[in-house]
Every structure is written in structure tokens, then in C-alpha cells.
Specification:
The complex is a heterodimer. Chain A is an alpha/beta fold. In chain A, 22% of the residues lie in helices and 31% in strands. Chain A folds into two domains: 2-105, Translation factors (Elongation Factor Tu (Ef-tu), domain 3, Beta Barrel), CATH 2.40.30; 113-246, Rossmann fold (3-Layer(aba) Sandwich), CATH 3.40.50. Chain A has helices at 86-92, 128-140, 162-171, 198-208, 221-233; strands at 14-23, 28-34, 45-51, 57-63, 73-78, 98-105, 119-124, 147-153, 175-181, 214-220, 241-246. In chain A, the strands form two sheets. Chain A has a six-stranded antiparallel beta sheet. In chain A, a hairpin with a 4-residue loop joins strand 1 (14-23) and strand 2. Chain B is mostly beta strands. Chain B has one domain (42-194): Alpha-Beta Complex (Sulfite Oxidase, Chain A, domain 2), CATH 3.90.420. Chain B has helices at residues 13-16, 61-65, 94-101; strands spanning 24-25, 46-51, 54-60, 70-77, 82-93, 109-113, 119-123, 133-138, 141-142, 152-154, 169-173. In chain B, the strands form two sheets. In chain B, strands 1, 4, 5, 8, 9 and 10 form a six-stranded mixed beta sheet that branches. Classes of the chains: A alpha/beta, B mainly beta. Chains A and B meet through strand 3, strand 4, strand 6, helix 5 and strand 11 of A and loops of B.
Chain lengths: 250, 202
């Protein structure tokens, strides 16, 4: 209700300087931008615009990975083979380069500390990015509400932000991180080695033993469909589930 | 502002002409939705036209399928920046729906409403004169649930969030009332050719 009043996107494109680049995994690169964005909420995204010498422009949207209030805006960009924009970031961009951004954008797939919990997060691949902002915001806010992340990737090495997630779990008893990898063996007793399905989510929810007040799911459409369908079958009310699906990117 | 080292991959002139500013072409059909996909059985489906709280007309699936069917081909433009060209849709135009109901629009605006608490607002004039349909088929096949089946609104000349998925209601409103995304940072009208993506875009 009242939430709606705060989402007024900045209409202006503005210059952002690439502060630094950090390779997270073989396919995911974090781009830290120095830019004066308005205050953002965990889960929001920015639009990025690149301009060629002949004036041709390409725009894409990328989720913000950094917690609200951070000095830099962190985007974590997956390299998409044959893509037009992601290869620029992976192969060409350097610290000191400038791009244009506008935002923050989005008023639905957002979390704020006052929302409380318990909060269930389900990520597939680079779908972790907006959820990472939520986890970081939760940590900064020292929220007492429980949070669980179920995160699926192909391999242990491809879990973006893996070490930070392990650290967060080690420090915060209220934070639970469960990984599932579709190739290779599980690394910890609590992890899985298969695709997210109803049985896996049933196990996760049973062990957690909480009733999620809100659920955030981000990943490919196939991943989000499988996860939402399973959770609804597990009697999570559909109205509590927010989704973000990527596709059509390049 | 030129981006050092960026050249991009501009589309051919034929395609470029059909892409609104800031859009790029995609060949696949991405899915965007705020939550889980509702799976609506045809036996449970109905479409209701109402004036505020007052129902004006209602159709079951069988009644709706008996209305005159129209086929369109056109381009769709999603505010998340992808465009899909030459899509094929069939369904019942808004004009035919009003005619079947024997209704003259009682106001200049309406909200398209879906059972997942989604809604989006449109000027009635943007739906009249062959500009909108309730689509039940895509590419000659029943519309899949993840793309809004059994039936979605289709308004090709506005950003695609205006084409409400899983539509079950068209409710005339006395004023231009913001819908789901319009309350959450997105533009009240959403013309892709004027790049009206977000609330404050001109």
C-alpha cells in the first residue's frame, strides 16, 4: 500500500565511473560503479547505456548487488555467449572508464529491514545478484529475523559470492545458506547435488522449521517456474512469493 | 557520451526501424511476472466487464470462444528492453466484446485485472478501433499459462506490461487509476516510441 509511494525512478541518465572490476567466477564479473544514485532498496536494478562512436546505443538492466547505502553500486554481470553488452564488460571495460546509468528502478522485487521475516530466498545461477543485496542489507541492519538462502548453481566454483555467504552463515546463526550443485558432489552435509524441485525444497523447509513471511525467487524462467510451483505445492501462499526471471538478455 | 571500446551490434535498417528507442530484438519469448504463474482451468475461467463495482457483462470460456475471432500480427515491446517482432495472436477484439455486451464505455479509463492481484490502467480510447484484444492463441496454439493463458489482454502499441496476463476483468473507472506497476515506479501510459518507461518520463 504505502510502499508504492517511494518508488519514483530517477528520470535522468547520469555518468558513472567504473571504480574497479572483480572476477567473481569464470562467468560472472562484478563491476563497481561510482555514481550518485538516489537511495536504493535491496532488490532494485539500474539501467545501463553504452554508446558506440557512431552514436548507436545499447541499453540493458542489471540488478544491484550492493547493500543500500554502500559507497559503490556493484553490478555482477554474467557473460552471455554471443551477447552484445555483457562481453563489453568482460573483455573491454577497465577501471576509470565511464558508462551511463539511470535508476534505481523497480518497486516489487524489493526487501527492506522493516519488512521483517522469516524470509526465504531462492536463487538460480546469477539470480543470486538481487538476493545478495537483500542478504547484505539484512546483515547491515542486524535484523533479528531468520533468513534462508537456497542457491543452485552448476558447480561449487560457480556459486557467486560463495565465500561471503559462508562467512555470513558462520557469523549469523539466523542466516542459513544451503547450496545445491547440479554437477559435482555436495561440499557440506547440508548441501544437495541436484536441481531444485519439490522434494528438495520440502527438505529445506522442514529443516528450517519456519514459515516464510515473504519469498524472493530469482533465476531463469525454468528455474523460477520449478521453484514457485514446488513452493505452492508445499502450501506457501502464492501471494507471498515474489519472482524475477531473466531472459532475452544478451 | 561515447563508451570507450564499445561498438555494439546494430540491427539491420529493417529491424532498427521497428525497434523503439532503447529496445533490442530477441528471438525467444522471455517471461516476466511478479509471482507464481496461476494455472486457471477453463471451467473456472470467466471474463467480466464492469463499471466500477457494477458488473455489465460476463462470459464463460465457451461463451467467449463463440464470439467473433480476430487474428493479428505485430511486434511486442517489453519495458525490460527486449522486443519480439512478428508475433501472431488470435482472440476477441475489445470492440467486438463491447458490441457483444451491448455496452457503450461509461468512462474514459479502465483497469485490466487478473486473479493474482495484478492490474494495469489504460485509456479506453487506446483499446477501441481495433487496437486491443483479449488474446487466447499465440502462434496458432492455445496461449500457455506462463505467457498469460488462457487469456491475456493484448495492446501492441504500449509496453507489454499493459497487456495483462491471465485477465479476468475489465473494470471501467471514473479516473485514470494507477495499476500494479504504475504504483511501483512505471509510467501511467507507457508508449514505447516515446520511451515512457518510468514514472517521471515525459
Amino acid at each position: 500500500m504505502t510502499e508504492a509511494a517511494t518508488y519514483v525512478a530517477s528520470a535522468r541518465w547520469q555518468e558513472a565511473t567504473i571504480d574497479r572490476l572483480l572476477r567473481r567466477t569464470e562467468r560472472v564479473l562484478s563491476v563497481f560503479l561510482r555514481v550518485r544514485l538516489g537511495p536504493w532498496l535491496a532488490g532494485q536494478h539500474v539501467d545501463v547505456r553504452l554508446t558506440a562512436p557512431d552514436g548507436y546505443q545499447a541499453q540493458r538492466s542489471y540488478s544491484i548487488a550492493s547493500a543500500p547505502g554502500s559507497d559503490d553500486v556493484e553490478l555482477a554481470i554474467e557473460r552471455l555467449e554471443g551477447g552484445e553488452v555483457s562481453p563489453y564488460f568482460h573483455d573491454v571495460a577497465q577501471a576509470g572508464d565511464s558508462i551511463e546509468v539511470r535508476g534505481p528502478i523497480g518497486g516489487h522485487f524489493v526487501w527492506r529491514p522493516a519488512d521483517g521475516g522469516p524470509t526465504l530466498l531462492v536463487a538460480g545461477g546469477s539470480g543470486i545478484v538481487p538476493l545478495m543485496a537483500i542478504i547484505r542489507d539484512w546483515l547491515v541492519a542486524q535484523s533479528a529475523s531468520p533468513m534462508l538462502l537456497a542457491y543452485s548453481a552448476r558447480t561449487w566454483e560457480e556459486l557467486v559470492f560463495r565465500d561471503e555467504l559462508l562467512d555470513t552463515q558462520a557469523q549469523q546463526p539466523n542466516f542459513t545458506f544451503i547450496a545445491t550443485t547440479t554437477r559435482g558432489r555436495p561440499h557440506r552435509p547440508q548441501d544437495f547435488d541436484r536441481r531444485v524441485d519439490r522434494a528438495l525444497l520440502h527438505d529445506v523447509l522442514t529443516r528450517w522449521n519456519r514459515s516464510a513471511r515473504s519469498v524472493y525467487i530469482c533465476g531463469s524462467n525454468a528455474f523460477v517456474e520449478a521453484s514457485t510451483t514446488s513452493l505452492v505445492q508445499e502450501e506457501v501462499p502464492p501471494g507471498r512469493i515474489r519472482t524475477e526471471r531473466f531472459g532475452g538478455q544478451n | 557520451m561515447t563508451t570507450r571500446g564499445f561498438f555494439g551490434r546494430p540491427p539491420s535498417d529493417d529491424v532498427a526501424r521497428r525497434l523503439p528507442p532503447g529496445q533490442y530484438r530477441t528471438e525467444d519469448f522471455p517471461v516476466l511476472a511478479k509471482g507464481p504463474t496461476p494455472h486457471i482451468a477453463l471451467a473456472q475461467w470467466s471474463l467480466t466487464l464492469s463499471d466500477g463495482p457494477r458488473p455489465l457483462a460476463s462470459w464463460t470460456w465457451a461463451e467467449f470462444e463463440a464470439l467473433p475471432q480476430t487474428t493479428w500480427r505485430g511486434d511486442i515491446h517489453c519495458v525490460t528492453k527486449w522486443s519480439k517482432l512478428d508475433t501472431n495472436w488470435s482472440g476477441v477484439t475489445f470492440d467486438d466484446l463491447l458490441h457483444a455486451a451491448g455496452v457503450t464505455p461509461p468512462s474514459a479509463y479502465l483497469l485490466a485485472e487478473s486473479p493474482d492481484d495484478y492490474s494495469t490502467n489504460l485509456p479506453v480510447s487506446d483499446l477501441l478501433g481495433g487496437k486491443a484484444m483479449i488474446a487466447t492463441r499465440f502462434a496458432d496454439a492455445p496461449l500457455e499459462a506462463e505467457h498469460g493463458g488462457p487469456a491475456r489482454l493484448l495492446v501492441l502499441h504500449l509496453y507489454f506490461w499493459k497487456s495483462a496476463k491471465w485477465i479476468q476483468g475489465l473494470r471501467f473507472t471514473p479516473r485514470n487509476e494507477a495499476g500494479f506497476w504504475e504504483l511501483r515506479g512505471y509510467h501511467m501510459y507507457g508508449d514505447p516510441w516515446r520511451e515512457q518507461r518510468y514514472t517521471n518520463d515525459p
